[in-house]
Write a structure and sequence with these properties.
Helix content is 41%, strand content 12%. It is of the alpha/beta class. It binds pyridoxal-5'-phosphate (PLP).
């Protein structure tokens, strides 16, 4: 008899029952049924059960519904989002960590490797060793952590501690970012009590470079009016077009006014691994904070971002925990107490907004241990090549138009039949084409707007994607445009230069 109705044994058997289904899911075989929600919703929706259905029933539901109807974002043709399905080893590492590294607070190999992975990650993206930080649940929290440190810095410069005293003395706080900034930065401003309206949007030009004169002017106007600039946020790989903003120039403008410079590299932070674009990142040792998302380009399971700051002290004061009786204990002075439960883990709990948390970084360790820095570099270069391949195909085709020159692994383009020039018609046409392409299932790009116009937007970060999939994306768009009669036979076949 088990003491508890929940199984605490039979792990191997439980996994064994799911493995064939999981293995087959990762092959993305067979049709991906559209509108499947109607199939599983009704079966899964039930009231809180009074009596448990037992282990077997749960495993069966996992197998036949959860796994069978999983979202195939790891399929090689999927280039829709900036998150992807994990590769095998980090996914398995997550399971190992969930079972054995129950709490990052305590000394376990999982905890140790998490802290080691943080160092590795920092090396990988080119941040100096004295930067400090921690893993977060994702890019949203990594940006929140960076901006919390910025808020602390702004308050301390004015002689008070915002984390302790609140924000009354932070007069009209302002944060500056280009119009391409990720919308989680607005929310971070809201959560931090600065207000979403505190975000000053700096316009970008047609190549998506922020207007630096406008940034300086607006900063100076705010300072003259007695407002409090808290941070300038530079996007290193915006999610619309993959542009890397001029970090060095934005930092110089910010630092000349004693303002914090935060870099949102959640998606594009890893872009620095491609030597062709690395110079765009400038001197990262001089920035104040950096957000990067291993659960994007690094393809570890979702739930893993990382935030770094140049001055760990500011961050610790921003996120400090008050002492609590249940964790304080008089030092015994006896050295090794002999129990593993007396050993605190590595890493600083004051660098995070979580309290209890998994050893998230274990998956990052696993990914880097498996493929090394060179493997990550090759992946980033290949994906940037994919975007360049799409751009080259688009440039060659008379009925396609490149809307933004790829910088990283995103390529924004659209169908533009020679006889259509009305912008609204083009938007509607491209939206239709995109939906049809996705329904066909071979290539799944997404969309955005570039200079106001609807763009088809493949974003290549999927480890399973190759140049052939980039080609297929263009082929599918052309095929659908042909089907819809938007471009003629001649245009369909033509790839001659304009
Ligand atoms: C994905 C992303 C975010 C948000 O990160 P989450 O991991 O989704 O929380 C923020 N900024 C950029 C540039 C991103 O690509």
């Amino acid at each position: 008899m088990r003491p508890d109705i929940a199984a605490t044994d039979a792990l191997a058997d439980s996994l064994a029952r799911l493995l064939p289904a999981l293995e087959s899911f990762t092959r993305f075989e067979g049709a991906d049924p559209a509108a499947r929600r109607t199939l599983w919703r009704a079966a899964l929706d039930e009231p809180l059960p009074e009596a448990g259905a037992g282990r077997e029933a749960v495993l069966e539901t996992l197998r036949s519904y959860v796994i069978a109807n999983g979202l195939r974002i790891g399929a090689p043709g999927f280039s829709g989002w900036v998150t992807t399905m994990p590769t095998t080893v980090p996914a398995v590492a997550q399971l190992a960590g969930a079972i054995t590294a129950a709490q990052r607070w305590w000394a376990t190999p999982g905890n140790f490797l998490e802290v080691l992975a943080l160092r590795w990650l920092q090396r990988l993206v080119g941040l100096p060793d004295h930067f400090e930080g921690g893993f977060t649940s994702g890019g949203a929290t990594a940006n929140l952590v960076g901006l919390a440190a910025a808020r602390q810095h702004a308050g301390e410069r004015r002689g008070f501690d915002p984390s302790l005293d609140g924000l009354q003395r932070l007069v009209e706080p302002r944060v500056y970012a280009s119009t391409e900034v990720h919308h989680v930065v607005h929310r971070a401003c809201g959560v931090l009590g600065l207000g979403r309206r505190a975000l000053r949007m700096i316009p970008v030009d047609s190549s998506r470079t922020p207007d630096l004169d406008a940034l300086e002017r607006i900063l100076d106007e705010d300072l003259a009016a007695g407002r409090t600039p808290v941070a300038v946020v530079a996007s290193a790989g915006d999610v619309n077009t993959g542009a890397v903003e001029p970090i060095d120039a934005m930092r110089e403008i910010a630092h000349a006014r004693d303002v914090w410079l935060h870099v949102d590299g959640a998606y594009g932070g890893f872009g620095v691994l491609d030597p062709r674009v690395a110079p765009l990142y400038g001197d990262l040792s001089k920035i104040d904070s950096f957000a990067v998302d291993p659960h994007k380009w690094m393809a570890v399971p979702v739930g893993c971002g990382a935030g770094f700051v140049r001055d760990g002290g500011v961050l610790a004061r921003a996120l400090t925990l008050e002492p609590a009786a249940y964790v304080e204990m008089a030092p015994t002075g006896t050295g090794d107490l002999g129990s593993p439960f007396d050993e605190r883990g590595e890493g600083n709990p004051d660098f995070s907004v979580d309290h209890s948390a998994p050893a998230r970084g274990l998956t990052v360790w696993a990914a880097l241990k498996e493929i090394g820095a060179s493997g990550m570099r090759a992946r980033v270069v290949r994906h940037n090549d994919c975007a360049r391949r799409v751009a080259a195909r688009v440039r060659e085709h008379p009925a396609l138009e490149l809307l933004a020159e790829p910088i990283l692994s995103i390529c924004c383009f659209r169908v533009r039949p020679e006889d259509v020039s009305d912008e609204d018609t083009l938007d509607a046409l491209n939206e239709r084409i995109l939906l049809r392409v996705r329904a066909r299932g071979r290539a799944i790009p997404s969309h955005t707007r570039v200079n106001g116009r609807f763009a088809i937007r493949p974003c290549f970060i999927n480890p399973r994607t190759t140049l052939a999939d980039a080609d297929a994306t263009v082929d599918e768009v052309l095929a659908v445009a042909g089907e819809l009669g938007a471009i003629g036979e001649r245009a369909l076949r033509s790839e001659s230069p304009r």
